[in-house]
């Protein structure tokens, strides 16, 4: 048996998966422009807190506005880059953004189809689990819809619904009470 594989040894790092719209920012519908991104209370501090604890931090977000033709994939990527630039100012970061540009019925582009990444399907979470050394037992998802929690459950991690409360307080409570 090699070091790290001994009984009782935890493999990988804990990770937190955040839905984006409605969790990190106010969901005003199809947010893709910097000027429309409005951080929810405690969002940046929650990410900073998790970074300091050694958690990997991911965003897993459905972006059906791409399929609907409201914006392009490059717009989503630009917004995500800006988010990390804002976080960098407080010494925080998101390790990777995962997004699903598909919608099963809406739109008329190549992105209008069923897929394994659109929540409640677990594809985005499963991609992160395959790409990163993650300890599933200490990892969890924070979302604002049942589809987020269902995706987490299908991927084998815990899911937590949050409302309008301060995200930092909610995440701290989850970490301290559960893990």
Offer a concise description of the structure.
This protein has 179 residues and is α/β, with parallel strands linked by helices.
What does this molecule look like?
The chain is an alpha/beta fold. It has one domain (20-178): Rossmann fold, CATH 3.40.50. The chain has five helices and five strands; from the N terminus they run E-H-E-H-E-H-E-H-E-H. The chain has a five-stranded parallel beta sheet. Helix 1 runs parallel beside helix 5.
What is the SS-derived class? alpha/beta
CATH superfamily: HAD superfamily/HAD-like
H/E element sequence? EHEHEHEHEH
CATH T-level topology = Rossmann fold
Order of neighbouring strands in the sheet with most strands: 3-2-1-4-5
CATH architecture: 3-Layer(aba) Sandwich
Average pLDDT rating = 93
Question: What is the topology?
Answer:
Elements: E1 15-18, H1 43-53, E2 56-62, H2 73-88, E3 96-100, H3 123-131, E4 140-143, H4 146-155, E5 158-161, H5 167-178
Parallel strand pairs: 1-2, 1-4, 2-3, 4-5
Helix pairs in contact: 1-5
Give structural attributes.
five-stranded parallel sheet, 5 helices, Rossmann fold, alpha/beta, 13% strand
């Amino acid at each position: 048996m090699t070091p790290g594989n001994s009984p009782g040894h935890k493999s990988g790092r804990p990770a937190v998966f955040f839905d984006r719209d409605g969790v990190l920012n106010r969901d005003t519908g199809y947010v893709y422009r910097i000027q429309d991104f409005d951080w929810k209370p405690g969002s940046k501090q929650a990410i900073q807190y998790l970074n300091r604890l050694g958690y990997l931090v991911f965003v897993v977000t459905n972006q059906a506005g791409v399929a609907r033709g409201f914006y392009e994939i490059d717009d989503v990527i630009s917004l995500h880059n800006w988010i990390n630039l804002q976080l960098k100012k407080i010494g925080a970061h998101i390790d990777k953004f995962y997004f699903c540009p598909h919608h099963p019925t809406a739109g008329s582009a190549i992105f209008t189809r069923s897929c394994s990444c659109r929540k409640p399907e677990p594809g985005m979470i499963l991609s992160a689990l395959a790409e990163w050394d993650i300890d599933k037992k200490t990892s969890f998802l924070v979302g604002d819809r049942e589809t987020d929690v269902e995706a987490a459950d299908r991927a084998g991690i815990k899911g937590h619904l949050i409302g309008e409360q301060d995200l930092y307080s909610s995440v701290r409570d989850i970490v301290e009470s559960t893990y």
